[in-house]
Every structure is written in structure tokens, then in C-alpha cells.
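Reopening this ticket.

The earlier resolution said the output was attached, but the attachment link was broken on my side. Pasting everything inline this time so it's all in one place.
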Amino acid sequence: MELSERSREILRAIIQSYISTAEPVGSRTVTKRYNLGISPATVRNIMSDLEELGFLVQPHTSAGRVPTDKAYRFYIDTMLEVKSLPRQQEEEILNYPLHRGDFNQLMQETTKLLSALSHYTGIVMAPKPAETVYRHMEFVRLTGGRVLAIFVSNAGIVHNRMIILDEDLMQKDLERISAFLNYEMAGKTLREMRSRVLQLMDDDKNTYTRLLMKFMKVWQDASYEGEVEAEAELFVGGLSEMFNIPDFKDYEKMKELFLAFEEKHMLLKLLDLAMDAEGVQVYIGSENKYFEMQGISLVVASYRGEGNVVGTLGVIGPSRMPYNTVIPLVDCTARVLGRLISER
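Inline output:
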């Protein structure tokens, strides 16, 4: 939408003022804080026009105006000047003691880092099982026909599943399956492994049939065919930070937010979309069907590992968050996490 230069200046002033104070902005505030060279009466007229266009709302008759989600989208797309990350904050990210051993701990610590630096809630979507490249597979015989299936990724992520077989395979049989998988399947994703197994069964039934049929039985009983499309795990840190923000003093607003995290599949769908996008993405709640919450924004970026995009991370906070500082924070954290995963 085209706005005159004066309207853009006033809209920018109102948004920046509201980001700083969380208080409705009146015409006198605009003229006092920002040297626009126009009278309060002129500002009031333009604010009224912006309200009619859907950029502003007036909470109370005597109050000033507050920006709408439409205003934030216009601001982000056409007026935002993203700053470079301050050197001190960049060093905090680079020197943050992110755990290099346990993968889940690394994910959780990353959410805490995002929360600590942004003062909002940090989120990380771990790599999906289907997109994870595996380096080691093992099947361990337990009692009562039970088998523990263990898959270890190149990044050190461990997926395991307890399975029950109709026939009681001996450990040496399971070791043969494990050895075959580690020789033939290492470096492949779960989806690629399944395709490769089916191909080998067709190519050389005499050599592979008995071994592969046992493996496919293990695969089926472990429900890995369903696992291929399973949701990724979502890590959340600093949710309590929201209690310190004026926008979330309302009980109903906090309840809505907590419910959104409990029903995390919708949030995961949104984060999944961000994996296909370049750079940092900003999602304003009321704009999208996956995380439709008035007054909430997500700033997210994908992170890479093993040469590919494997997950997303970001910050959830009020729509009036300072995007010019949050965007470079999310971008830098994504690059650091990607480097750590690749180093593993």
C-alpha cells in the first residue's frame, strides 16, 4: 500500500514510540518526541486517516492510538532498518557455553540463550527424523521378544524405539542386520534407507531376501514408516519472560499463549515452513493460520547442519518487539548453532 512520505513518518514514529513504551501514542507525543515540523492538529488528521486504513486503532475514546498487525507488517517490509548485532552481544553468543555433547541439551541451551538476549521466549525446532542423516544403527535383543532399535545421526542425535517381534531373533541375527545397515545405509536418511532396502530386495533376492525381510519386520514393528513423517521435537526456553512484559499482564492472553505451546503441532507447521525460506522471517500472529494470535510475533531463521537446512529457531514475543535488534540476534544464533552441529 502506498502512503505519503508524511504519513509514513508519522506511522514510523507511532510504532517506534509504542515499541518503547507499550503506551497508546497521542499526537502531542509524536510532535514532542519527533521533529517532524508539523502541528499536533495535522498529526491528528493523519492519524485519523491511518486509522481508517487499518494501520492504527484507538483502545479508548480519550486515548492515543496503537499500531495494528497490519502496521507492523508494513513497517517491517518497507521501513525497518536492521542494525548490525552489537559486538558485545555477538561475543556473548559466540562464547555462550553451549553443550557440545548431549544434543537435547544443546537444543535447550540454545533456547535459553535466545531468551536471555532478547528477553522473550526462545524456541528451537530440532531436526526431523526423516531429514536426519544417520551414521550408526544397532538392534539389541532384550527379553520376551523385545528389541531395542537405536539410530544415531551424524550430529549425535539418538532415536530409539522399543519393538516386539513375532519371532524371537537371536542377538547374532540382530547383529547381522546392524552390520548390514551400517555398511549399506550409513550416510542416508530414514526415507532414503527405506527406499534402498526395497531396491536391494528387488535387485538380489537370493543374497538379501532373508536378512532384509527380517529388517523390514523390525522396521514395520518399530513404526518407522510412520516415524518418517513424525513431527520434529520443539524446545522452548524462557516462557516466564512473558510475565514481565506489559502486553501479557492479561490472564486470558497468557492462557492463550500457554495453550498454543501445548498444541505445538500448529507452531511446528509454521516453523517447518520457515525451513524453506531464505534468511530471517517475521510472522505476525494474526496473519497466518498456524499461529494466529493477536499481538504476537515470531522471528525465526533456519539453521544448517551436515550441509543442509535441518531445523529452525527463533524468538516469540509481542508484536511491538524491537525487530531491528531481534532479527540480527536470531540470525547470528542460527549460524552459531549450525556451525556447532556441523562440527559434531
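Reporter confirms the inline version is readable. DSSP finds 13 helices and ten strands in the chain. The longest strand covers residues 308-318.
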